[in-house]
Amino acid sequence: MSKQKIALITGGSRGLGKDMAMQIANKGIDVIITYKTKEAEANEVVNAIRSTGRKAAALFLDMNAFNELDAFVTGLRNLLTQEFNAENLDCLINNAGMGSTVPFEAVTETMFNEFLNVHYKSVFFLTQKIIPLMPSGATIINISSSTTAYFVPGYSVYASLKGAIEIFTKYLAFELGKKGIRANAVAPGPVETDFNNAAIRNNPDRKKYLGSLSPLNRVGQADDIGSVVAFLCTEEAKWINGQVVKVNGGLV
What we know:
Layout: E1 6-9, H1 15-26, E2 30-35, H2 39-50, E3 56-60, H3 69-83, E4 91-94, H4 109-130, E5 139-143, H5 156-176, E6 182-188, H6 195-198, H7 204-212, H8 222-232, E7 244-247
Parallel strand pairs: 1-2, 1-4, 2-3, 4-5, 5-6, 6-7
């Protein structure tokens, strides 16, 4: 009998993370999600996953609180042992993020440091701390952004750090390959969620314009991204490694 797979998704209480969690569970994989402020929503996701017959749980994680990562990993180990009867994690999806539209000249050091912690520093070191839990055949999926390839006013910090994540992903694939661990990044195009204060959903003109940039003439939806992430967690994706998968509807 094959071992039951378990995935950890950071930032899984809403938006893209929520859809990833549901679609990964639909692949027969148990799921742990994290939340920062949306505990009730996280519990709703957990209950929805459990209703499908899969195991699920939620843990608090603040990616800006870098010094708390060790305590989080300790809690994760305990959760795996006590609730999942497991010692290993098979899929790590680094999804948690934050958004803000700020012109380059208005960026403060405080703001920069928060973005740095959430989108790169904590991703780097959380991954490092979780690697001992990951067996051969495990996979890491880092969520990037199509803003690394095209320009969005006010995204200088966010897009720069997502660019760093894409390079980090390639190094992970190279250095962890000897352990049998794969690493890929998924770079969504414009997606209609509540990210950055629902900047697309709440602005019909912006939504129409961004949709017009795709040959499919629409912006993305959460399930457009979650389905790809779920696929990358499966054995069917075992030969995809070190890639930045652009999920953007053919954005030009």
